[in-house]
Specification:
The chain has 10 helices and 10 strands. Strand 3, helix 4 and strand 4 form a beta-alpha-beta unit. The protein is globular. It binds zinc ion.
């Protein structure tokens, strides 16, 4: 009888402690919206994710707020892209007296160089996104070993989806006639996509958004579009459209749509998750480039 009581007490303790533990979510801060999605996919309901640079916003030029400093100060993990993307980060870390472990999601990626600079936009290759996800999974497992089986299961499911997405992108690009696989975009954000899938991108700006093209750069690009018969130019979801509008008008090129480069869309937009972003971009490209030349 006494044993039965003890078993009951332990059973009750077990029941009480399970919900209490489920409520302690791991606080994770992600530097920008695409990383925030990766962390949510792997962390599920075991993490509380805060994203610093939100949807449709420019992660290259960002001014952290005092609220960001507070969020970073309370975080257990801070997930960043690295490769020079978050130039504003060191000052934020100083301001927040952060104790968070910093996770560089691009660790292990074959870095694309543009002159002396690293190209930070590695997520534009889906295979690279899979490396991001594995790095995030490892960091979550170390930070919260009790929930490791959940993180591993979530990551496995998501990695399977990403692997299928990578094949889907290749199949879509195959539909574009090879001589039409070239586009103009605002800033140099699609180099990894170009290398992985064989679509040539010519950018108006560099790998960051901080510099404006000169009149001579603009004339050069119009010349390039005409000489190479580039079928379409694309807008980006967070950059000023006026440059591209001008280029398209001067070169007589079609505006192919909007590409999501460095940020997700809002929840009700066409790219609220990374997978939706990749699908949206590849459909915009095949839509504009897949048509036969006039
Ligand atoms: Zn960028």
């Amino acid at each position: 009888m006494r044993n039965v009581h003890l078993i009951l007490i332990f059973a009750l303790l077990g029941l009480c402690s399970t919900p209490a533990r489920a409520q302690t979510r791991l606080n994770v801060v992600a530097s920008f919206s695409i990383l925030g999605d990766f962390v949510r996919q792997v962390g599920g309901n075991k993490v509380n994710v805060i994203t610093l640079v939100g949807p449709d916003s420019d992660v290259h030029v960002y001014t952290p707020t005092p609220h960001d400093a507070k969020d970073v100060g309370e975080a257990k993990l801070l997930v960043v892209n690295g490769l020079g993307l978050e130039g504003w980060l060191p000052r934020l870390l100083q301001a927040s007296a952060a104790k968070a472990k910093i996770v560089t999601a691009t660790d292990g990626i074959a870095v694309r160089k543009r002159g002396a600079d690293a190209d930070p936009h590695a997520w534009q290759s889906v295979k690279n996104a899979m490396i991001y996800v594995r790095n995030i999974r490892e960091a979550l497992v170390v930070a919260d070993p009790a929930d490791a089986p959940i993180f591993k299961a979530n990551a496995d499911r998501y990695l399977t989806e990403l692997d299928a997405l990578d094949r889907e992108v290749r199949a879509e690009v195959d539909k574009i006639p090879p001589e039409r696989r070239k586009v103009i975009a605002t800033h140099d954000a699609f180099g990894y996509l170009a290398d992985a899938y064989g679509v040539q991108f010519i950018a108006l700006l560099g790998v960051s958004t901080e510099t404006e093209p000169s009149a001579r750069d603009m004339a050069g690009i119009v010349e390039t579009i005409k000489r190479n018969r580039i079928p379409a130019v694309f807008l980006e979801n967070f950059n000023d459209d006026r440059l591209i509008d001008r280029i398209a008008a001067e070169a007589g090129a079609t505006i192919g749509g909007t590409l999501y480069s460095d940020a997700l869309s809002e929840e009700n937009g066409p790219a609220p998750t990374y997978i939706a972003l990749v699908r949206h971009n590849i459909r915009a490209l095949t839509g504009a480039l897949g048509r036969e030349a006039r």
